[in-house]
Amino acid sequence: MKLISIQEAVGFVKSGDHVFVHTAAAAPVQLVTALTERHRELSDITFYHMHTEGPAPYVNPEYSSSFRTKAFFVGSNIRKALETGEADYVPVFLSEIPKLFNKGIIKLNVAFMHVSPPDRHGYCSLGVSVDGSRAALNNADLVIAQINPNMPRTHGDGIVHKSRIHYGVEVNDPLPEHFPSELTELELKIGRHCAELVDNGATLQMGIGSIPDAVLASLIHHKDLGVHTEMFSDGLIHLLESGVVNNSKKTIHPNRTVASFLFGTRKLYDYVDDNPNLAMLDCGYVNDSKVIRRNPKVTAINSAIEVDLTGQVCADSIGIRQYSGVGGQMDFIRGASLSEGGKPVIALPSTTRRGLSRIVSYLKPGAGVVTTRAHVHYVVTEYGVADLYGKSLRERAKALIGISHPDHQEILEKEAFERFKKL
Predict the structure, then answer these.
(1) Angstrom distance (rounded) from CA 265 to CA 237
(2) What is the pTM of this model?
(3) For the chain, which domains are there?
(4) Would you name the residues annotated as active-site residues?
(5) The pLDDT of residue 208
C-alpha cells in the first residue's frame, strides 16, 4: 500500500470506470468528494453502492454527464436523484450482492474503501461495514482506501492485508452517527407485542430504528438470546452487557454475535473495536437462508411501509417512489420460517404520521412487494399480533383488520367484504 494524497488517488480513476463506494457509516466521503471535483475531466463513471451515509455529490444534476449511480439500496442522500432520473436502483437481495461481483455480473474497476490503520502485522479492518464491500474489494482492479484511526477494528471477514490496498489516503474523520430517539408509548407497545413472540434461547435479527429499539428494550427479562443479523445498532449493547444476549444456544457461531454491518453512535463503534465476541461477516453468508435456518428459534423482526389485507408487504417504496430497497428482509423472513421454532415478524405502526392506515385493502399503484403473502407469518402493530400462517385470504383480512387502527376498521371491513364477499 502506497500512501498518497487525495488528489493523486482519485487521479487513477478513468472515464468509463465502474467505482464501488464502501457502505453506510464507512462511506469514504473525502474520496468521493475529490473525485466529483474532477467532473470536467471525466465522463461515463458509474458508481455502485448500497446505502451510504454523508453527502453523495455525484448525483447532483450538474454532474450528470460525468457520473451515473446504480444503488442496491436507497438512502436519503440519493432519493431525490432517483425521482429526477439522475440515479438508478438495482433491486436485489442483500444476500446476492456479493455474487454480482464474484461472478463478474458487475465488473468493478475501482473500489473506494474506508479502513482502520494497519496493525503490527500489516492488517487493516473494514470496520463497521463488511456486507458486500468485501466482495467488491476482492474483485476490483484497483483498491483505494481512506485510512482512518476512527474506524474500529472488527474481527471476521473484514480483515484486509495492506498489500491488497493499492493506494491509501490518510484521514482523521469522525464516523457518521445515528442517535436513538426517545421511544414513544406507541413504539413501546409494538415492542412489547414483538417481545412476547420471542422465546428464551431464540436467535434474533432486527435492524435499526425506533421499533427495533423498542423490541430490544422489552427483552430485558429474556434469557440466553443469540444474535445473527445483517445490522447491529446501539440497542443491542445493553442486552450483551447484561448477559441477556450470550449466544449460548446458537448452532453456528455459538457464543459470538454475528453481523454484517454496523451503524450507531460512537459508543457502538467503541464497543465493537477489537471485540472478539463479534464476528463481522460477508452478507452473502450472513443473509443466506441456508445459514440462517441452522440456528434455533430464529426470530426475524422487520419493518414495512404498508401491508395489504392478503399479507403482501411493501417495504421499499411509497407507490412508485423508491424509498429504500429490498435489503435483507426476504433473506431473514425465509430463513426464520425454515428455522426450527423460528418466527418471521413484520412490525409497523397502524397509521402513518398523517393518520393514514398502513394496513390497506390494496397496495398503492406501483408499490413493490418485498415479502410475498406466502412468506408472511406474523404482522404486529400497537393493537396486537396477527398470525397469518396457514390462513386463507379471508381469514388474513379479518386478522389484519383486527390490528388496524379503529378509525380505519369500518372502511377496511367494507372493502374486504366487497373483495371476498363475506368475512
Answers:
(1) 11
(2) 0.96
(3) 2-170 (3.40.1080.10), 185-420 (3.40.1080.20)
(4) 230
(5) 84
